[in-house]
Write a structure and sequence with these properties.
By secondary structure, the chain is of the alpha/beta class. Helices cover 46% and strands 17% of the residues. Bound molecules: uridine-5'-diphosphate and magnesium ion.
C-alpha cells in the first residue's frame, strides 16, 4: 500500500453547528490539494452536544473520514494528540473545527512547504476577526511574555494551525509530557520551519471552548513547560532584598543610637506585607512546577479512546483491540492509539 499523502487532524469540542460545514470545506480543500489521497481525523473531546453523533454519521458514508471518540473531555491539546497519534499521512494538517482557520489555505501551505523545503509550515495570525478586545489583548500579552521567558524561540501569534511532515510529527510524538503545549513542542523539535501569514476568520458557529480559566491553565502550561525563569525569580528578588535590608539595618542602628527607636508602624507593616506577598507568590510558582512534576510522575496515558468509527490507514477499526502503550511509544499505523489507551473489546 502506498503511503497516504495527507492527514487532516481536527480536535472538536461542542462543535455540532460547525461539523457539516467543516466537512464540506475540508473535503473540497483536500481534494484540490492532493486528489483522493487524504484522510480526515475528527476527534470528539467529550462534547456535551451532538458532536459525536454527527461525526459518526459523517464517517458512515465517507471512507476517508475517521471519527475518534475520547472517553471524556481531555482538553484541546490532548484531543489533538490523540488524532495525531492515529493519523497515518505523510503530511499532516492541524486545524480547528470552528473554521477560524480557513481550510482553503491548504494548497498554498503545501506549496510553501515544497518551496521552502520545510518540515513545518505554521500559520501566523495577521488579523483576528470576530474576537473580543480582551481575547486579542490577552493573547498578544501572552505570546510576548512567553517569547521573553521561553528558552527556545516560540513563534508569536501562532496557534496550532500548521502543516507538518511525517518526520516532524514523529519527532513531536516522541515527546512524552502530559502538559502539552503543542505549538511550543513543535518549535522545540527544530527542523526547517516556515511562517505562513493569514487572516483569522470569526468562528463559524457555536462558542469558544476556551473560557478564562482554561486560558490561564493553558498559559501556565506554556510557561512552566518552556521556562524555568519563574523559579529563578525567587533568587533575584532575594538578591534585590539584600540591598534593601542593608539600608534598613543601617537606619535601625542609627535610630537606636540617636534614641529615635520604637515608632514606625508604617515601615513595619510595609516590610511584613511586601515580604509576605513575595513569599506567597514564590511559593505559588514553585507549586505550579511541583504540581506538574507530580502529574508527570504518575505516567498515566495521555487520553482514553472510547471508540473509533471509520478506517485508520484504510483498515476498519471500529472496536479495534489494542493494548495501552507506554508513554514513550510512538504511534505507527500498526499501533493506532499510541500513548493513549483504546478499549480492549
Ligand atoms: N477544543 C477541544 N477541547 C476543548 C476545547 C476546545 O478539542 O476542551 C477544540 C475546539 O473544538 C476547536 C479548538 O479546540 O476545534 C480550538 O478551540 P476554540 O475555537 O474553542 O478556541 P479559541 O479559538 O476560541 O481560542
Ligand atoms: Mg476557535
Amino acid at each position: 500500500m502506498s503511503p497516504l499523502p495527507l492527514s487532516i487532524v481536527v480536535p472538536c469540542y461542542n462543535e455540532e453547528a460547525c461539523l457539516r460545514e467543516l466537512h464540506v470545506r475540508l473535503t473540497r480543500a483536500a481534494a484540490a490539494a492532493v486528489g483522493a489521497g487524504y484522510e480526515i481525523v475528527l476527534v470528539n473531546d467529550g462534547s456535551r452536544d451532538r458532536t459525536w453523533e454527527i461525526m459518526r454519521e459523517l464517517a458512515t458514508g465517507e471512507p476517508r473520514l475517521v471519527a475518534v471518540n475520547l472517553s471524556r473531555n481531555h482538553g484541546h491539546q490532548l484531543a489533538l494528540t490523540a488524532g495525531l497519534d492515529l493519523c497515518v499521512g505523510q503530511r499532516i494538517l492541524i486545524i480547528d473545527a470552528d473554521l477560524q482557520d480557513p481550510p482553503e489555505l491548504l494548497s498554498d501551505m503545501m506549496a510553501e512547504m515544497d518551496k521552502q523545503q520545510a518540515d513545518v509550515v505554521y500559520a501566523v495570525r495577521r488579523a483576528r476577526a470576530g474576537e473580543t478586545a480582551f481575547k486579542k489583548g490577552s493573547a498578544k500579552l501572552f505570546y510576548r511574555t512567553l517569547s521573553r521567558l521561553a528558552d527556545i524561540d516560540i513563534p508569536r501569534d501562532t496557534g496550532d494551525f500548521r502543516l507538518m511532515s511525517r518526520r516532524a510529527l514523529d519527532a513531536l510524538l516522541s515527546l512524552p509530557e502530559q502538559a502539552r503545549f503543542i505549538r511550543g513542542l513543535v518549535a522545540w523539535i527544530g527542523f526547517r520551519q516556515a511562517p505562513f501569514p493569514y487572516d483569522r476568520a470569526p468562528r463559524h458557529a457555536g462558542e469558544t471552548g476556551y473560557p478564562l480559566g482554561k486560558m490561564i491553565r493553558f498559559a501556565l502550561d506554556a510557561v512552566t513547560g518552556f521556562s524555568t525563569a519563574p523559579l529563578r525569580f525567587a533568587s533575584h528578588v532575594g538578591l534585590g532584598l539584600v540591598g534593601a535590608t542593608l539600608v534598613l539595618v543601617i537606619y535601625i542602628v542609627y535610630a537606636f543610637l540617636t534614641g529615635q527607636a520604637i515608632q514606625g508602624w508604617t515601615s513595619l507593616m510595609l516590610v511584613v506585607v511586601v515580604l509576605g506577598t513575595v513569599q506567597m507568590f514564590v511559593l505559588g510558582m514553585i507549586g505550579e512546577y511541583l504540581g506538574r512534576l507530580y502529574i508527570e510522575a504518575k505516567r498515566r496515558p495521555l487520553y482514553i479512546v472510547q471508540e473509533i468509527a471509520g478506517r485508520v490507514g484504510g483498515e476498519p477499526v471500529l472496536g479495534h483491540v489494542a493494548t495501552p502503550q507506554g508513554a514513550d511509544a510512538i504511534a505507527t499505523s500498526e499501533t493506532p492509539g499510541g500513548r493513549g489507551s483504546l478499549p480492549s473489546a
